[in-house]
Amino acid sequence: MSMFCKATGLLPTPGREHRDPRSPLFSCQRMQRLTIVLLVVVALLATLELSGVMAKISPRDRVVAWTACALLISVAIAVMLLDRYVTQRKLEHIETHLRRLACEDRLLDPIETAVPDELKPVMTALAEYVAMVVARVDALRQQKRELDSQMQIVDAEKHRIETIMHSISDPVLAIDARGCLSLANSTAEGLFGFRLPLAQGRPIERLLDDSRLVALLTEPGSGDRHRRRIDHTIATCEGARTYAITLSCVLSDSGTYGGLVAVFHDITRERQIAQLKSDFVCAVSHELRTPLSSIRAYAEMLIDDEARNEEQKREFYQIIETETGRLQRLVNNILNISRIEAGALPIHREPVRINDITREVIKALAPHAEEKSLSLAFEGDATLPTLRGDRDLIHQAVMNVIGNSIKYTPTGGQVRVATSLDPKSSRLTVTIADSGIGIANDELPFIFDKFYRTREGAGAAKGTGLGLSLVRHIVETVHRGEVSVTSERGRGTTMALRFPVRIT
Ligand code: ADP
After folding, report:
1. CA 488–ligand 1 middle distance (angstroms)
2. 447 alpha carbon to ligand 1 midpoint, in Å?
3. Given its phi and psi angles, is residue 259 left (phi above 0), alpha (psi -120 to 50 degrees) or beta?
4. Stretch (H or E) spanning 246
5. Residue 93 C-alpha to ligand 1 middle, in angstroms?
6. What would the DSSP string read from start to end of 155-173?
7. Residue 430: Cβ-neighbour burial (10 angstroms; 0-12, 13-18, 19+)
8. pLDDT at residue 242, rounded to an integer
9. For residue 233, which of 263, 264, 204, 198 has the smallest C-alpha distance?
10. What is the phi/psi pair of residue 242, to 5°?
């Protein structure tokens, strides 16, 4: 029996390491060996039986031998089933143990884990594998942390760039190397009519209608011209606007083209002002030249004694006086505007009767109205209180507005002037209504700007575009009143100058 146990490995053999007391009695290896031994015994018995050796022993011994053999096989099968059961239990134990480790977030320790001897190498390999996975996970976590911090830096950088872009009042577009929109500030969104979240990453030609602008934005700068400035007019919902576009190429470290940043600076107003200034210089020169030439011509005639008689002489003097007055008005307009703007014009406040001033102006301008066969009517409210103001400046303002009505009303038209009082708002109003050429709606907001002349007005009469600017300064800046205008093109214009009065 001890021989049998030794052969099957059920007992420790000398020289072999001691069996772990926790290891099962019927391990897999032992069961395999036991099975082999049993097969050998059965094969031996079968050989003996077939060779007739068994026939020589008594039938009783043959029955005993075969019974012992059958018994051994039954025992072996029972032991195998038992071992399978025990192994199953052990595996369940390991599974429970691993699950508990997972729940407790602990690592596998093969020494601590009670496993059958034959599973120890598997558990050790498993523990090594788990350790390797843990190390890999740690490394990945570290990488993720580094990536997270890099992402934070990139996010902060992106946020910084977006903040800078949005703080720029001019429209800014950033286009990538493929010609797709990568960034735009809110002013650019407004100008081109897209929303950045929807437009980002889309080709710029799908976002803009203007093919020339698209070509400018998608062409990399040639040669070393990494920055270009191009003036371009863009059609907007408020009309055409001219922009000075600065196109700067974005280059990578290796010098390859990485896209383009375009900043649109609106120079419409500068262009208009430049145009207005040049128109102004022309107009002022013309305005100065006309009276100057006539003064010179009449002065020369007087010097050369060309006047036929005293009456004609007086007529020449009269013309010289009128033209000198025209020159004076022009120069006064220019000077007064700059003085009021600089706050350097001395204001002499005194009680002013607006009806008297209006009558004086009408009297002075009546000859001009007559020249054009205009009816110039005045309807003054006789109960008006006096207003405290600068007589000469108010005179100048009323003169400019009535003068404009006469200037911009075609022959045979009407100019009506009226004064009134609104006790509720304590405002005294001079209203000048004409049946003249009128002012287009889109130009109305600009007529009080310095040097501004309407398209139609510039064609109809000479002027400097300074008269109404001075009127607004005199009424609003000096007298704290208001100027308002209503007009219909081709039908006429009505201007109202309102001055605050103290009603007692
Ligand atoms: P200007 O010297 O050109 O008359 P103003 O400042 O007095 O300059 O007027 C500005 C512009 O407003 C004029 O050029 C003209 O086009 C327009 N305007 C002013 N008054 C009238 C009016 N009564 N009717 C039509 N257009 C007018």
Report:
1. 14
2. 7
3. left
4. strand 239-251
5. 103
6. HHHHHHHHHHHHH-SS-EE
7. buried
8. 93
9. 264
10. -100, 130
Name which residue sits closest to atom 25 of ligand 1, judged by CA.
438
SS3 of 266, please?
Answer: strand
* CA–CA separation, 192 and 186 (whole Å): 10
Q: Indicate which residue's Cα is closest to atom 19 of ligand 1.
A: 404
Neighbours of 339 (CB within 10 A): 14
Q: How far is CA 486 from CA 45, 47, 277, 433, 439, in A?
A: 132, 133, 26, 9, 9
Q: Residue 381 in contact with residue 343, Cβ under 8 Å?
A: no
Please list, in sequence order, all residues whose beta carbon lies within 8 angstroms of the beta carbon of residue 303, skipping any fewer than 6 positions away: none
Whole-angstrom distance, CA of residue 351 vs CA of residue 369: 29
> What pLDDT digit, counting tens, does each position of 416-448 carry?
999 999 988 899 999 999 999 999 999 999 999
One-letter identity of residue 82: L
The terminus-to-terminus CA distance of the chain in angstroms comes to 142
The Cα 317–Cα 307 span in angstroms is 11
**Residues 35/73, Cβ–Cβ less than 8 Å:** no
**One-letter amino acid for residue 12 of the chain:** P
- The pLDDT tens digits for 358-374 are 999 999 999 999 999 99
Rg from Cα positions in the chain? 55
* Nearest CA residue ID for atom 7, ligand 1: 467
Q: Is 453 in the pocket of ligand 1 (CB under 6 A)?
A: yes
Residue 206 structure tokens? 């799908």
Q: Which of 290, 400, 404 most suits a substitution to test ligand 1, by most atoms within 8 Å of the C-beta?
A: 404
Stretches in the chain below the pLDDT threshold 70: 1-29, 110-116, 118, 220-225, 504
Q: Give the pLDDT of residue 41.
A: 82
**Per-residue tokens: 237:** 């919902």
pLDDT at 267: 94
Pocket residue to mutate for ligand 1, from 374, 447, 451, most atoms within 8 A of Cβ: 447
Nearest-angstrom CA–CA distance, 77 and 97:
30
Is the shortest distance between the CB of 439 and ligand 1 below 6 Å? yes
Q: How far is CA 496 from CA 96, 104, 472, 480, in A?
A: 97, 89, 11, 14
Q: Is the CB of 171 under 6 A from ligand 1?
A: no
Residue 26 is predicted with a pLDDT of 54
